[in-house]
Amino acid sequence: MYDLPNSMSGPKEKVLIFGCSHRGEGLGRLPSGQIIFVPYALPGEEVECRITEAKRDYSRGRLEKILTSSPHRVEPPCPVYYACGGCHLQHADYSFQLEIKKRQVEDALSRIGKLKDFTLKPLVGLNPPWRYRNKIGLHAGEINGVPRLSLYREGSHILVDTRDCLLVPEDMVKVWQAVEGSLPAMQNLPETKNNGLSGAIIRKSFHTGELMSILVGLPDLQGGRTLVQKLCKAGVSSVIALFPGKGVRVLAGPGYLWERIGSFRFRLSPLSFFQVNPRQTDTLYKIVLDYAGLTGKETVLDVYSGTGTIALFLSPRAARVYALEVSKEALQDAYANAKENKIDNVFFIHGYAERTLPRLLNEGLTPEVIVLDPPRQGCHPKVLEAVASIRPRCLIYISCYPPTLARDLLYLCRRGYRVKEIQPVDMFPQTHHVECVALVYPA
Asked: How large is the angle between the packed helices 402-414 and 94-111, nearest 10 degrees?
């Protein structure tokens, strides 16, 4: 029934699914009482699964048959959904996806964070929940002996047999197909035998519609130049050659895109970080602005600031904003973004947050509002320790991973803070990922 990757076979079991894990897998109990994770099973379903992995504390199962189906189950529109693994919840209707994600956040906050007496607001969804990504990474290889450019199956280096992804706009898909169509000719060139195109990254500005194609490992050969010309004719505004470990080279166009969030324009360089869902980024930043409650007199500190998007977004309502970031490439974009938007009250600081933040605070920086937007692994303990020591008027924590959000909020609560409100935002429909914005005050 399900086109799933092959796995080890074990005994079959009937299982009642009572919940979902943070990875979107169905949660059930075996007759022994042990928890079992069953991908693609939904809460409320009774399923037949084959045990593929048995540990002391849990098991994993492969969904074999649905005995009692959830009313929220739908047929995934993507034909390679079960083979790809990049999405995790296409088998659930979208309203139920939002409910699943809210439950995941609730579970992390209560089980890991031990949090009580706060408001968890309903998820802000996306309509329509498709074709929302502004970036996709693809890999070159062979499928059945034919050169292809595609996605890797989750957790592997096996190419998925597809030429489309329902999470990226159709014009990006056309660029993908144009690059793939050039692979056979390029791989037949003698000079590319051991140095051919290994992949591509495609980016888009949802504001201007401009497209960028980043060709990974593209040698400067006639076949490569032909591809660049082909992409430019297809409407690509910037073509970049990326040599892993050696930097990038602009082959055509300005070498960057401009995106707009609210009234601000942001420059996107080939490797700069930017939220992959610009349609929801505007919503996310407005929540941060609302939580900050700025009057124009405050000093704001934005830690893990990236290309300065949040710092710049907050700047018109603040007296001054300090933005701390370790990536020099991101800071280059941040300076360009500030110049483009004619903003002169944002001060960018280069350095590791765990080293630089304590020094800044020891030197007398006293922000009324602190924004934390760390990577998936959450804040470094020294960052939390430094923040907890100065007790700003409010702290806003943006997280893409509820377990580390809950862990860090627990630390702050033990240091005299309280969580007032958490607003989840569905930045990544069809997947198990969810973004949260937490408003934290000194107790």
From this structure: 30
Rounded to an integer, what distance in angstroms lies between the CA atom of residue 39 and that of residue 7?
13
Please, which pLDDT band fits residue 188 given cuts at 50, 70 and 90? low
198: Cβ–Cβ under 8 A, 6 or more apart, which residues? 139, 140, 216, 217
Strands (E), 198-276: 199-204, 211-216, 238-243, 247-252, 257-261, 264-268
The two structure tokens encoding residue 437: 């914005």
**pLDDT at 197 (0 to 100):** 84
What pairs with residue 50 in β-bridges? Answer: 12, 62
Instruction: Round the average pLDDT of the chain to a whole number and report it.
Output: 93
Give the chain's domains with CATH numbers.
12-73 (2.40.50.140), 106-127+277-442 (3.40.50.150), 135-258 (2.40.50.1070)
The reported pTM is 0.91
Distance CA 142, CA 336 (A): 40
Residues labelled as active-site residues: 400
Structure tokens that stand for 195 in this block: 């140095």
Residues in a beta bridge with 15: 47
Nearest Cα to Cα of residue 165 among 420, 430, 349 = 430
What are 262-312's pLDDT values in tens digits? Answer: 999 998 889 888 899 999 999 999 999 999 999 999 999 999 999 899 999
- pLDDT tens for each residue of 318-338: 999 999 999 988 898 899 999
Contacts of 352 (CB under 8 A, 6+ apart): 326
Nearest to 228 by CA among 209, 255, 208, 205: 255
Residues 6+ positions from 181 with CB-CB distance below 8 Å:
none
Rounded to whole angstroms, the Cα distance separating 439 from 426 reads 18
b/e per residue 146-166 (b: at least 16 CB within 10 A): ebbbbbbbeeeebbbbbeebb
In angstroms and rounded to an integer, the radius of gyration of the C-alpha atoms of the chain is 24
